[in-house]
Each structure stands twice: as C-alpha cells, then as structure tokens.
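Subject: Aminopeptidase P family protein

B.,
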Amino acid sequence: MALHFEKAEFASRLARLTEKMKEEKLDALLLFAQESMYWLTGYDTFGYCFFQTLVVKSDGTMALMTRSADLRQARHTSILEDIHIWVDRVNADPTLDLKNLLVEMDLLGARIGVEYDTHGMTGRVARLLDAQLTTFGQIVDASYLVSRLRLIKSPTEVAYVERAAVLADDALDAAIRLTKPGADEADILAAMQGAVFSGGGDYPANEFIIGSGADALLCRYKAGRRKLDANDQLTLEWAGAYAHYHAAMMRTIVIGEPTHRHRELYNACRETIEAIETVLKPGQTFGDVFDMHAKIIDERGLARHRLNACGYSLGARFSPSWMEHQMFHVGNPQPIEPNMSLFVHMIIADSDTGTAMTLGQTYLTTADAPRALSRHPLDFIGL
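Prediction pasted inline below.
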C-alpha cells in the first residue's frame, strides 16, 4: 500500500477522534473532507469532486462509500478494508445508498455528526443528505471536529512540512534566477512549479499566484501572462507541497528602481511580521496574532490597504485551497499550541499609487518562540 504513515500513527489518530466523538456524544461521524479521510486512513484521491463519505463509528469501525473509479485507489492508498460502491446511473441518489449502509451499521436513531463545511460537500449533496437523514437520527454539524485535531502535527507530519518548506525555498530560488526586465511570467511560473516537482513534491492544493504590474496587487491566481518591464513589481504566493503537506511563502519582488512607496510598505510588512513572531507562541490566540497585525499596519495609516486576515494554519490539504479553517482574523479564540504549522502573510495593496508589497512564510510553533521554516531571510528583494 502507498501509505505515508505507519499504521500505529493512524491508530493513534483514530483513538483521538473516537475519544473526541464520545465527548461530543456522537455515535458516528460522516466525513466528507478529503483531508480528513487522508489524515485518518491515508486515502488519497481527487474523487471527492463526486459523492463520497467515510463513516466513522464511535467504536472505531470505519466504512467508505465511494464510486467504482476510486475502489482500487482506496485499497492501494489507505488502511480501509470496508469499501462500498454506489452506482452511477440516471437519477442516482447516493445518499439513499448511504442511509442503507447506516442501517447495516446499526445507526438508525443515532446521533450523527456531519462535515458540512468542506469542498467535498456540495449544496445539492447537503440537501439530499438532510432529506434522507432528518428522520433517521439526530444530525449535527461536526464540520471542525477533525479539522481541530489536525492542527497539532506529529513528528512525521512535521518532517513532511519541513520537506515542503525546502521545496518552497527551491521555488523561490528558481524564480529569482529568472526574474529580470523582459522575463516572461510563464517561464517564472514553470520554473517554480518545476522545482517542487523535481524535488519530489506534489501539486499544491491551489494554484501558485503570480502577478506583475497592476496584477501584483491581486491575491488570487488568474489566467494570462505578461513580460516584466524595466521597472516593475512581481508578487508571488506559492507553496512547497510534499505528501500533500504545504509550506507557503509570499514575496513581492521589485524589478529596477524601487519607489519610495515600495520601501515604505516593505518596512511596514517587515516590522509587522517581526512583531507577530513575539506573539506566535503558546499563551496567545489566533486573534492575538491578527490584533498585532492590525495595530502596526493601522498605526502607519495603512488600514484601508490591508486585508482582514493575515494567515492561517497549513497542513495536508486538497484542492481547491491549501488554507485550513483556522485563520488569523479578529476575535479568533483558537489557542496557539506547539507543533502547529502556521503561515503568516503581510499583504498591502495600495490601489491609489498602484503599489504592492507582500511578505510571508511558514512557521512551526514550539514551546516558546516560533521557528521559521524557510532558509530565506525576510529581506527586501530587488532585482
């Protein structure tokens, strides 16, 4: 089997999950998030674009319901043994097949948690599921139960995140080598992704973000490429990915002569991220991290140029996003604990002057100060 973890680690994760389920008085849990299935069993697929779910009972029994195309995938990449296939057909309703499976698993009338907040659960599936199960048992939203367990990384997971960070650094090296006046964004993007693949990494859970000129102020990938001018700005946000574990980075590179505004915004980013390092440790919360970000940026008169979040937890993620649920935004009470992999980013987009500046890297939390996983310093990059 193509497993990335020892079976003992999967057993430990299942034990943690069932303990939490008992605390929440859940008889069973329906997992729709692919990263939850991967974390718990090793199951690795993009088949979650169709209906599939992993049923987990509080006694540790597990059963997967999926399509025929993923039968061998589940057998080869996971520890799962009980796999059920729903059949593609006209007017198919796999939630009916699921209800029949739940009856077989003696869950009629049970209290069942459901992962609703995931890209593996479409609105249509949610409506069909609720229609089938509303009178079947007590259905509760358990979207974040596994997500919270995944926040703390095991030693093996930490090693994968560290490897992903190496690949992210390699990608930045590749970008810097090619970035100059006249360089094509397409070549830079190809070199960055190629560096990750050449290092044994994976596709990231979302596209690398690349934009120059006016596009440097964007926070999302879009189609279309351009060549760099003699004086230009290039914003890059990317991640190394290894065994689906991510380590993200972000930089704005200035080509030619930096403007005074570029320097001013860079200094604000650098000061803020260094201040955040003082609160990115146990005893603080995700909300505290955002408050530090907002305080410094706003004191510099840049409130309307910043975002309403400044980072998030990272881990093993699947398309369409490498972002975890837990983000640095106002009021988030999530405690910071050791062995979390957290991406901190500073993004300032000054649309008035057309100036972009970003700075970001992934950290591993410890019992005290966080450890930056990148070998690259946070220095201004001008080429």
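The mean pLDDT is 97.

T.
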